[in-house]
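Good morning N.,

You mentioned wanting to compare the apo and holo forms, so I went ahead and generated the holo version with potassium ion. This is what I fed in:
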Amino acid sequence: MRLLIDVGNTSLKAVLWENGQIQPCDINNISWQQITVVIYACVGRSELLKQLLAQAKTHNIDCFEATVSSELSGLRCAYQQVGNLGIDRWLALISGYTLYPNTAAIVVDAGTATTIDVLNNDGQHLGGWILPGLDLMTSSLTQNTQRVFDDANTPFANELGKNTPNGLKNGALVATMGAIEQARLHLKTKNSLLIFAGGYGQLLQGYFSQSIFDPMLVMKGLNYWYELAKKS
Ligand SMILES: Nc1ncnc2c1ncn2[C@@H]1O[C@H](COP(=O)(O)OP(=O)(O)O)[C@@H](O)[C@H]1O
Ligand SMILES: CC(C)(COP(=O)(O)O)[C@@H](O)C(=O)NCCC(=O)O
Ligand SMILES: [K+]
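and this is what came out, ligand included:
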């Protein structure tokens, strides 16, 4: 059984991978005897991760940190400094490329930040954008202005705002939607796939037809990375 760990800037997520199936994992109660390998990725704070890796070490379990490379099994990274691309972005791209081969895709990971990455049908990552996530967009405004206020009950909606919380929340949503539309312009193919992941992935997916939400996209990418990196 594999333990997969993804550390983002908001939270650490862990799942178990057994016989091609993802199972939930309680990090406070891990059956270390059953774990054969730990595969992890980290773009956030690593204290909790360090504790888990130390526990794995006491059980003599191999731990592998996923890394970005310029090429993996035909998938090519747009960054020249590949080490600067967030590993979560690379893992989401690996998943998109592996799950939907020969398909042009826009991969959106909407968490603390919203990342938008463009992949052509030939496996070339064309690049992408980093935006503040929806919560960061709204909190940066409420924290840096006198009169802009939020309301926890106000939903994000694709509508004009007629009060302050609606203007604030809906502004963050449409800014993000507009960036996704812009990303599509970078693909020649009309039939590109739009794949969403992350805490706000499902909300955003609801605004785009012919799109997919896969909450396990980065986790699946960890597993694919391990299998592909082992081969190469
Ligand atoms: N149903 C949800 N579950 C988890 N996070 C959510 C949910 N809906 C919105 N969010 C927001 O998504 C962000 C966390 O997403 P996540 O992809 O876990 O982030 P990260 O990878 O940066 O740790 C937070 O801003 C959180 O408020
Ligand atoms: C952009 C990110 C902060 C997104 O992280 P997340 O929202 O998943 O916590 C992360 O992918 C990162 O730190 N990237 C490094 C810079 C880059 O990708 O160019
Ligand atoms: K993200």
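Residues 8-9, 43-44, 84-86, 88-89, 109, 111-113, 115, 130, 133 surround PAZ (ligand 2) (CB under 6 Å).

Happy to go through it together on a call whenever suits you.

Best,
F.
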